[in-house]
Amino acid sequence: MRRIDFFEKKNRAYSNKKVFGLCDDDNQLPAYIDEDLANKDSKWIGVVDNGLEKNVYFYPVDHCVELERPDKSDAQKCEGILNYDDNNIIFTELKNRDSSWITKATNQIIETMSFFFDNYDSQSYKTKAWICNKQLTNQNYYQQINDFKEQTKRIFGGNGYILYISKVFSVK
Question: What is the tens place of the pLDDT at every residue in 121-137?
């Protein structure tokens, strides 16, 4: 099996701003970091709260990393991976729709995680997942978060992974 490099420097972007956005223009190009506060309401789907001004890297996966299932079909991929403090990674999926998005987003993250952990030691990372929807309501997502934890526990072992469903992710 060939090793898949999820951390290709040629695709990497980073920010150490206190607040920056993640954007996906839905144009078959990779998601990206945007630091222009003027775009916060129009382009940003996810907001990263980086109050400690850490170097936060974003590695796009969708439209950058080739993930192929054994039957040769393309795997579902999340938008990308946020990385900070070397060992903190957050699998990130960005949505901009008002219905039927949470199951698809969860599946995209889990399939991406499967390929990632086939290539990297899961014990080397503090792993989380973040689904952001620009049209997110104040709905309680407890059941979906709990289902994700149980699914990842069953698939990857251990205690399962934490899923955040919010417009903002805080780097700590």
Answer: 999 999 999 999 988 87
